[in-house]
Amino acid sequence: MLIKIAKPSDVKPSEITPKSLYLDRRRFLKTAAVAGAGVVLGTIAAPAPAHAARGPKLEGVVKSKWNLETLGEKLTDYDAITKYNNFYEFGTDKDDPSRNSGAFKTRPWSIAVEGAVEKPGTYDLEDFIKPHALEERVYRLRCVEAWSMVVPWVGISLANVIKHFGPTGNAKYVAFETLLDPKQMPGQNRRVLKWPYKEGLRIDEAMNPLAILAVGLYGEAMPNQNGAPIRLVTPWKYGFKSIKSIVKMRFQADEPPTSWNEAAAREYGFYSNVNPTVDHPRWSQAKERRIGEFLKRPTLMFHGYAEEVAHLYAGMDLRKQY
Ligand code: MTE
Q1: Whose CA is nearest to atom 23 of ligand 1?
Q2: Vertex 270, ends 268 and 275: CA angle to 5°?
Q3: Which among 242, 243, 261, 268 is the best mutation to test ligand 1's pocket, defined by most ligand atoms within 8 Å of the CB?
């Protein structure tokens, strides 16, 4: 992300899947917990290893209809996905998150579910995930900076999570928050953004079958730099909507504030749908560079997911509500 920064002292710019499909859940939870324990051994600001250490394999992952064959594209290399990141809590350069997040502790981890919901509470990550099928979802990810990737995420359906907690009639939006812990997240000591990082979705967007909470990629536990232990993925929106290391979900009647909109409202709206016809005020969004490729390719409306999501925005002026 690039924002105009005022202060020079600041940095530069389905339904629930049948039980048979997730019988191995207990084993997944064990391997994921090992992943969390393992990262504690890392060190802050260590040089990036030549080959990123790979997380433990996740058990019981089922293939979904969003797979490599149906997408018809090539996966982005693991190394690129895990070393070219935006995660400002660990620094603003693309290699900062992989270099600075080694010691980030992702177990124990809990998620607060608040607001207009039948089952509010603070849930241990394992309990939060347990009722849901772990699926592989191969999605395109398009950053607002006009680069893109193809990532084989492993995650749970956000719609299933929401149904599980039972939103009430007042739940028009869902707000998300990242962990606030400047000791572990050195980037939070700089006022690049108003911490904690915040994002939000309209409830019907959140209920769209494409939206997931991802806990891994390439069949392995989520690397810290990609948002361990759990992050949002909404492939029809610019990457910054995909908030990492989530500790809170709040259901509410009003549109929640979001970090990038607070930082630069003219540049980053609430919706942030990938839209090649609406330029960023400082650059075009018509094309993108797929990481690993030389020539730019045209950006597709809703990043190619129009069939699944265009109905959510019927009647809206997407130039004004960008
Ligand atoms: N979440 C938090 N908490 N902090 C961030 O800085 N960056 C966003 C998003 N989620 C960010 C975040 C941006 S700008 C992008 S493009 C994606 O994460 C990048 O995800 P990736 O590193 O897995 O490619």
Answers
A1: 226
A2: 65
A3: 242
Among protein residues, the one with the nearest Cα to ligand 1's atom 8 is 240
Q: Are 134 and 28 in contact (CB under 8 A)?
A: yes
Note whether 287 and 222 are within 8 A (CB): no
List, in order, residues 6 or more apart from 70 with CB less than 8 Å away.
Answer: none
Ligand 1 lining (C-beta closer than 6 Å):
1, 85-89, 141, 143, 178, 197, 226, 239-240, 242-245
Q: Whose CA is nearest to atom 19 of ligand 1?
A: 86
pLDDT digits (tens, 9 = 90+) for 190-249: 999 999 999 999 999 999 999 999 999 999 999 999 999 999 999 999 999 999 999 999
Q: What is the pLDDT of residues 260-308, one digit of tens each?
A: 999 999 999 999 999 999 999 999 999 999 999 999 999 999 999 999 9
The first and second tokens of residue 263, run together, are: 């930082």
Amino acid at 33: A
Domains detected in the chain: 8-313 (3.90.420.10)
Q: Which residues pair with 298 in a beta bridge?
A: 287
How remote is the CA of residue 23 from the centroid of ligand 1, in Å?
A: 32
